[in-house]
Structure formats: C-alpha cells, structure tokens
Write a structure and sequence with these properties.
The complex is a heterotrimer of chains A (230), B (218) and C (39).
Chain A: H1 8-30, H2 44-71, H3 74-106, H4 114-135, H5 139-169, H6 185-218
Chain B: H1 2-14, H2 16-37, H3 41-67, H4 69-73, H5 76-82, H6 87-117, H7 124-149, H8 155-166, H9 168-183, H10 190-216
Helix pairs in contact in B: 1-6, 2-3, 2-6, 3-6, 3-7, 3-8, 3-9, 6-7, 6-10, 7-8, 7-9, 7-10, 9-10
Chain C: H1 9-38
The chains are: A mainly alpha (230), B mainly alpha (218), C mainly alpha (39).
Amino acid sequence: MNNRFPRLPYVLLAIGAVLFLFGSWWGLFVAPAEVYMGEVQRIMYVHVPTAWNWMLAVIFTFISAVVFLFTSDYKWDARVEAGLEVSSLLAFLLCCQGSIWAKPTWGVWWDWDPRLTSVAVLLFAFLGIVALRNFVDDAPRRAIWSSVATIIASVDLPIVYFSVKWWNSLHQPQSTPETVSPAFHLPLRVNAFAILFLMTGFIMLRARIASMRLANEVAPPPLVEAGEMA
Amino acid sequence: MIAALRKEMLLQWRTRTQLMAVFVFGATALLLFSFGVGPNSEVLRQFSAGFLWLGLLLSSTLTLAESFHAEMENRALEGLLLLPADPRVLYYGKAIANWIQLTLLGAALVPIMVVLYDAGTSRLFSLLAIIALGAAGLSAPGTLYAAMTAQIRAKQTLLPLLLFPLIVPALLASVKATSLLILGDPMRTLGSWISLLASFDAIYWALCGLLYGRVVEE
Amino acid sequence: MRGVVTGGWAYVWSAYSLTVTVFLVYAITLLARLRQERR
C-alpha cells in the first residue's frame, strides 16, 4: 500500500469533513429555497454529491478489479475490497436519501426512479460479492472470483439502468429534478468535493485494512508470547 | 465442443428424475403465487407472466447448482482441467446444456400458467422464443456462478444472492415480453423488449465465457 | 404533481443527519478495525 504518506487519508478525511460542514451550512441556510419544491429541495445538496461520488466509487472498484486480473497484484485486490464496501455504503445512503426526498415529493417512499432503482440493484449485487469474499478462505481464489463478479456486476449497471428506465416510462412520465440554476451551484460543488475527499480517505484506510488482514492471514502473528506456558 | 455438450446432455438424461422434481417445484411455486394473491382471476391473469418467470428463476437455482454436482462429487473439476480442452469449451457446453434444461422447464410450466391464471396466448412460437431467450439470460451467468459456488461452503445461499441482482434486466424484459403476448400489445413494443433480452444474452454469453477460465484455474 | 411543497424541514434534517451519522459511524469502525489489525 501507499505508505509513503501514512497520514494522508486522515488529512483527506479532515479536509472532507470541513468542506462538508461548509457546503451543508451554505446549502441549508444561505441558498434560497426552490420555487416548487420548497425546503425539501435542500436534500439535493447532499443527495446529488453522494450520487456523483457513488458513481466514481463504482468505476474505481471496476477498474481495480480489471487491473487485478491483469497484474495479480494484491494491492489491487485490497482496493477492490475497499471499493466494494465504500460503494455499498454510498449506495445505501443514496437509497435512504432518495426515499426521504421522495416521500414529501411524490407521496411514496419509493417511486421506481430508474437511477435509484439501478443503485439498489447494484447495492445488492455488491453486497453479494462481499458475502462471497467472506465465504472463500483461499486468498487467490477469493481475489480472482470477486474481481470477476465485480466486472460482471459493473457491466450490468448500464443495462439495468436502461431496462428499468424503459420499464418505468411506460407507466409514468419521467420527471427529473429541475436543472439546477447557478444560485445552487456552490453548495453542490463544495459538498461534491467534500464527499470526494471523505470517500477517498475511506477507501485508502479500508484498503490498508485489507492489506493488513491479508498479511496477517498469510503469516499469522505468534499466539504464544515467548516465555509463557502454552 | 460437441463432445462436451454430448457429455452434459448425457449427464442430464441420466439425472432426469431430478428435472422432474424441479418441475414439480416450479409448478408448486406457481400454485403458491396464486394463494398469495387470492382467487381473483383478473389479477392473476395480469401478473401471470411475472409469476411464470419468478417460478422459473427460483427453479433455476436448483438446476444450476445441480449442474456442477457431478463434478464436485468426484472432484472431476480438476480432472477436466488436465484435459487438453479449453476451459471455455467446457463452460459453453455446460451453459448450453443448462439453457436447454431451463427452456424445457419454462415450456413445461406454461400449461400450468394457462390453467392456474387463465393466461394463454395463441402465439406459441413467440412464447417459446421468449422463454428460450430468457433462459439463455439465466444460464450464462448462472453457470459461471454455479461453478464458483459449487466449491464453497454456503453454496445454496450464495448462488441466488449473486445471480438475482445481475439478471434483473433479463427478468424485466422476459416478463414484459411474455405479458405483452398474453395481455395484448397495442403499442407494438414487443420487438424492443426482445432486442433488449437478446442484447443482454449476447453480452453475457461473451463476457462469462471470457472470464470462466479465471474462475476455475488453480 | 405540480404544486408547491410546503414545510419539509423534518425531511431535510433527517437526510443530513443520517448522512453525517453514517459517515461518522463508518469512520469509527474503520479506525477500530485498523487498530485491531495492528495488534
């Protein structure tokens, strides 16, 4: 792992937290309320940045899986493990935020929006791969299989999106949240970077944990201290 | 390739009683769906396509897992790797055999659907085509994941856990297409759904074959 | 549905506090797991 800057993830997390506080404060208290959606629209300042970063996390996990299959370098398997977990975290958040937004807006907790539905499907797919990792003890097999499964699931994402979009469009006309006017740009951008820093910090730390766990697996530390009775 | 396929079909023929059992499982599932909904013929007919495909999907978890049972019993999986055969050939042989099996299962469940839900169609050939395409969508990734999960502990839980989110597009398209056949297609959208299903099949038959070699290597 | 959505601060607060809580809890679990692996 990149241990040239061991403190780097903590720095990123700190920057991310500060940015998030600033961006959220701006979005909650300074930015004007939107005409139709009123205060509820402010959820967008946290929902949209989470969505952008989720997408990045999925792409990162996919690329790590591909690189691992080509290089067999376990550093990339650690990144797959981290990416799977952080993507799932963000996906879970997205589904919750989306539901909280949908209830006052559409009257239901879930309105089969194609984007959110695709997120949910990929969330289940990635959780399945995490479960797979937990049940395979052999490290090379675990790494290869989860990379293969990640590639298969990631390739599916656009297909799922289009099929759900189409499936849903026959039942209700699609309406997206209005294109955001400039007054709202600042909090969106600040929070986008905030969550980007947070996410990167999380992935780096989680990948570190994965590498350490693998190292411990291969050469477990001695259980009995020298001098003690066994 | 033909040899691999012949071996698979022979294996399936020998274990055909198991296929019968899976058929009964599928038919029972269809029956249970109607109990879940209630004796409302209109509603049952509306959702008949969904029930058929859900029943087939559930049954597939049984047949797909079975398809590697023989290899696992005799540790034949490693033995096959020693043969000078491309693992991809083995994969496609199994996938095709599974595909045929699922198509037969689907076709066998159609009369059950017709009777229980009063849901039939005169376009039987189209229905069979949709069942074949949908079954193909299930068997390509299903065979790959069955190969993986056959070798580990929690195999019965993990195969559906991995497969179900993946085949959502195939499920959507198959149900929609079947539904259009049964309930009518005023806007002529059937062709598009079939294209979606066919594209899904093409992508996954290629991708899974490509990746299979890595899955079974030592 | 093209009316004006009134009120809704409760939803906004719950969305933000959920997000913050999830991030915080995850960060804490990461730190705990790191410590565990170091031992």
